[in-house]
TrEMBL record:
Documented EC number(s): 2.7.13.3
Protein name per Swiss-Prot or TrEMBL: histidine kinase
SMART domains reported for this sequence: GAF (SM00065), HATPase_c (SM00387), HisKA (SM00388), PAC (SM00086), PAS (SM00091)
Domain PAC: 394-446, 677-731
């Protein structure tokens, strides 16, 4: 006894009637007769009941499959989609349970009975997928199996300079096994973007160097690189040399190639070989498309990880430079919020002016009151004029009263940040003590005046002035390139080395100072240049000869080696800042700061770093006590004043990120750890209504003799803008992949199956007139969908890929237009298409396929929007330096509100012109994109009297194939 079988057979008529009533509301059943609507349903329910009652014997399964196939073929003939057919089986699965809601509990089917019913309906839906797409369940399961294996073999990341051959060969071998092929070879684009180089070959563990192929050439691999579909070469043996370019296909008789095309950019080509000559079925091509798309995604992710790694390396170098500059800076830095009038001052204010952080006023009024009365009006007027104007920078020198009331002469420089409307919203500046410099300058002026009044002492005065300027406390030099040639050396360097500067400049350091060879200087310089990381040395000992031929003596230096990159200064090199550690040097260092000597360069660096809005912290891990600078307090939302412990500061971190921040600190501070801390996290101030911000923290733990952390120092950078940009880029990439995936696979493959099926049906002799018309409607609709897909692909390429590519060649335009018009006439024999072509040949350099696409789109548009009894004309004529192609049609003009945006995507003509030929509204947009790719223009005129004319202007003067691409 089987309750579900009994129930189906007892309620068969009710089920059929309810199915017919419910199915009437489906779009796929419109226009069907009642007999066509239920078709084989009664027999099918009998077959399902028999299987549930007596089991799935081969005969019963064959009967069920035959009935399903008859039902699905009927739906195919009336133009139903795969989803329409599966929806009918889903409807049937809902109707059957609805009937037994009022049945007594003992008569209701059991769970096992229901499982049997639903298994039969699921198999029917699988049958629908197979008949619509030609792709069986076994094919899909096999595909999923190999894709899982590719995931297992895929490398997690690839550095941009790493050799990928060993990582990619297993993936290529897996594809060969999946396609049951003999071998395969993978080519990837080189850095120049024109040639492809072999990366992995299944028959060679190492690919021989020196082999490559032109991606735009006439070879088989070049044609694959330009084809959207897989290409097959039935006879690979005996090819011409130009066709075999780049191939290593010994023993391969049949070749199957497909390009790697992520995000609309050519990444490379995969070529699969078969030992025997054989046709390649559509299932194999589709399988290859799926595998290659998956491989493209793996490579794309690997390259993205490499780029991210490089960006992190550059960020770490930038942060190191900032940390060194911050340690060396001795100026007062101020940050003025022009909207709230709040001003914050850096900790150097105490050193420069004598004011502790709590003693500076919260607004600019405190600063104004401390300006010398004689300078106050001029300074205040000047800074407000700069803020209210359009300047990006303000600078002034004035007298300022320090905490003791003494006059300090300062040079104050500020950078003004403006909003989108040009209004000043923030000002960041640095105040330098130039009292000593001004006194020195006044002294120099006095010396010059004495020299002018006493010519007898002129030479002596000038010598004294030159010597005074040379007595900088810091030795500066620049070494250029891997040979470490001395590019710059000030007099202080030459004095330390004991050489005249003209004997040092332009020579490698080991030639200028041969006695330092073997003392580790060359290795130290090589390491800084190779790693890009600065080196800070303390009391480095070097044995120098202070005079030519003199004895070696010990010299001790404090050194900073800062790498210089070509993107920053125009060449690769190292900046060296050195102080000789002697009592005299220490005295000069106490008297004159390093910032005064390098004021110009430090000023630019300091302002740039301040504008980066970075903050810093200093924490005692054992106690949790912490020091936060004003910028980091504002960034994290901490109170502007007062002590804040590490635990209190962590409350400002979002709960979702707090665990990973604590984990990063724990890992960095553990016994035996590196001490390096890095984490990105979000903060939300506890008051003030400020939005969530992203902070990038970098720091270092210092350990005591017992290995325990005693100090934690670091910096924080507001990276909210970068995070928002990354999220936008990620969403755009997902949208691009989703759109291209739908168009390339989810739509194109079932349409190919429909066109193939209709073509086969039209060859049959037993079709009556009505069936033939139905098949022709299906074929016409499928071909229209293929054209729509082509437009969508071109649109995606134009909007996301940077334009539609064109491949130009020398051709005669008149013959191309004549052929294109004839093809259009064959499709609309009832319409008149007139041509006016010049007698002479019109030679030029154009892409024949794309120009034909322009012509057919314009002709199709003219035929669609013109009365059936009127002709459409095509005219081709010469103009100075170009060719004009004109397509004209009569009829109602284009609406005045539509005319300015006729070439924009998703725009159509008047609604209701012809529902059967509706499109996605991309035709004219693609036409304009192709014309612009040729360097041409397109215009349209439309009036009631003259009709509508599209005019395409294509330049041809001096055109050559290579520049046209």
């Amino acid at each position: 006894m089987n309750l579900i079988a009994d129930f189906i057979e007892a309620n068969l008529d009710v089920l059929v009637r309810r199915f017919a009533e419910a199915a009437r509301g489906l779009e796929s059943t419109q226009g069907l007769k009642p007999s066509e609507l239920i078709s084989t349903l009664p027999e099918y329910l009998h077959a399902v009941a028999a299987i549930c009652r007596h089991g799935a014997t081969p005969e019963r399964l064959e009967t069920r499959a035959r009935l399903e196939e008859a039902h699905i073929n009927l739906r195919l003939r009336v133009g139903a989609t795969q989803e329409d057919a599966t929806d009918e089986y889903t409807l049937l699965g809902r109707l059957i349970p609805q009937l037994w809601e009022d049945v007594r509990p003992e008569r209701k089917p059991t769970a096992d009975d229901l499982q049997c019913l639903f298994q039969q309906l699921e198999k029917a839906m699988d049958h629908v997928v197979v008949l619509f797409s030609g792709y069986s369940l076994e094919d899909r399961q096999r595909e999923k199996r190999f894709l899982r294996q590719m995931d297992a073999l895929a490398p997690q990341w690839l550095e941009s300079r790493a050799d990928p051959r060993g990582l990619l060969r297993p993936l290529v071998e897996l594809i060969v096994r999946a396609l049951e092929a003999t071998g395969a070879e993978l080519f990837l684009m080189d850095a120049g973007g024109r040639r492809m180089v072999p990366i992995a070959h299944t028959e060679h563990s190492v690919v021989a160097p020196g082999r490559s192929v032109d991606a735009q050439g006439p070879s088989f691999l070049g044609r694959v690189a330009r084809s959207e579909e897989p290409l097959v070469l039935a006879q690979a043996r005996g090819l011409e040399d130009f066709e075999r370019e780049g191939l290593d296909a010994t023993g391969w008789s049949t070749l199957l190639g497909l390009r790697l095309w992520p995000h609309g950019d050519l990444m490379g080509v995969l070529c699969v070989g078969f030992a025997e000559a054989r046709p390649v079925p559509p299932q194999t091509k589709r399988f290859l498309e799926t595998l290659v798309e998956y491989l493209s995604g793996i490579l794309d992710r690997a390259l993205l990880m490499g780029q991210l790694h490089e960006a992190n390396v550059r960020l770490e170098a930038s942060e190191t430079r900032y940390r060194l500059a911050s340690q060396a800076a001795a100026d007062t830095v101020w940050d003025w919020n022009l909207l709230t009038e709040e001003v914050t001052w850096s900790g150097e204010t105490l050193k420069l002016l004598g004011f502790a952080p709590g003693e500076t006023g919260p607004t600019a009024d405190w600063w104004v009151e401390r300006i010398h009365p004689e300078d106050r009006e001029r300074v205040v007027h000047g800074i407000h004029a700069a803020i209210q104007g359009i300047q990006a920078r303000w600078q002034d020198e004035y007298r300022f009263l320090n905490r003791q009331g003494d006059i300090v002469r300062v040079l104050d420089t500020g950078v003004i940040l403006r909003d989108a409307e040009g209004r000043g919203v923030r000002m960041v500046g640095a105040m330098q003590d130039v009292t000593s410099r001004r006194e020195a300058e006044n002294g120099h002026e006095q010396l010059l005046q004495e020299a002018r009044t006493a010519r007898v002492q002129a030479d002596t005065a000038l010598s004294q002035l030159r010597a005074l300027l040379q007595q900088a406390p810091v030795a500066l030099s620049i070494f250029r390139g891997p040979a470490h040639v001395v590019e710059l050396a000030n007099d202080r360097v030459c004095q330390l080395w004991g050489r005249p500067c003209d004997q040092v400049l332009g020579r490698p350091i080991l030639e200028a100072l041969p006695e330092v060879a073997g003392q580790g200087i060359r290795e130290l310089l090589d390491g800084v240049l190779a790693t890009g990381r600065p080196y800070v040395g303390h009391e480095l000992r070097v044995r120098l000869a202070r005079a030519a031929g003199g004895a070696l003596e010990d010299a001790y230096f404090n050194l900073i080696y800062q790498p210089l990159r070509e993107a920053e200064v125009g060449f690769e090199g190292i900046l060296v800042v050195a102080n000789e550690v002697t009592e005299a040097v220490r005295a000069r260092q106490r008297a004159e700061s390093l910032a005064a000597t390098l004021k110009a360069s430090e000023e630019r660096l300091r302002l740039a770093l301040d504008a980066a809005d970075m903050g810093s912290w200093d924490i005692e891990p054992a106690t949790g006590r912490a020091t936060w600078d004003a910028r980091f307090r504002a960034m994290l939302g901490l109170p502007a004043e007062g002590d804040v412990t590490l635990d209190e500061a962590m409350q400002f971190v979002l709960d979702e990120d707090r665990r990973q921040v604590l984990h990063a600190m724990t890992e960095a501070s553990r016994l035996g750890g590196s001490g390096e801390y890095a984490s990105e996290f979000r903060v939300r101030p506890l008051h003030g209504g400020q939005p969530v911000r992203w902070i990038s923290g970098r720091g270092h733990f210092h350990f005591g003799p017992d290995g325990r952390p005693v100090r934690f120092v670091g910096t924080g950078l507001d990276v909210t803008e970068r995070k928002l940009a990354e999220e936008t880029a990620r969403q755009r990439a997902e949208f691009e992949q989703y759109l291209v995936g739908i168009v390339s696979h989810d739509l194109r493959n079932p349409l190919s199956a429909i066109i193939l099926g209709t073509t086969s049906l039209l060859r049959r002799d037993d079709l009556n007139e009505r069936a033939t018309k139905a098949v022709l409607r299906i074929q016409t609709a499928a071909e229209r969908a293929v054209r729509m897909i082509r437009d969508l692909l071109d649109f995606t390429q134009a909007r996301l890929g940077g334009g539609i590519p064109v491949h130009c060649q020398d051709l005669e335009l008149g013959a191309l237009v004549r052929q294109g018009v004839e093809e259009v006439r064959m499709t609309v024999p009832e319409r008149v298409v007139q041509t006016s072509l010049p007698a002479k040949m019109l030679q030029g350099c154009w892409d024949p396929d794309r120009i034909t696409q322009v012509l057919t789109n314009l002709l199709g548009n003219a035929l669609k929007y013109s009365p059936e009894g009127t002709p459409v004309s095509v005219r081709l004529r010469e103009a100075p330096g170009s060719i004009l192609l004109e397509v004209h049609n009569a009829g109602a003009p284009i609406a005045s509100d539509l005319l300015p945006r006729i070439f924009q995507p998703m725009q159509r003509g008047e609604p209701g012109v012809d529902a059967a030929t509706r499109s996605v509204g991309l035709g004219l947009y693609i036409v304009r994109t192709i014309v612009h790719a040729h360097g041409g223009t397109i215009d349209v005129t439309s009036t009631q009297e003259a009709g509508t004319t599209f005019t395409v202007r294509l330049p041809r003067a001096g055109a050559k194939p290579a520049p046209c691409v």
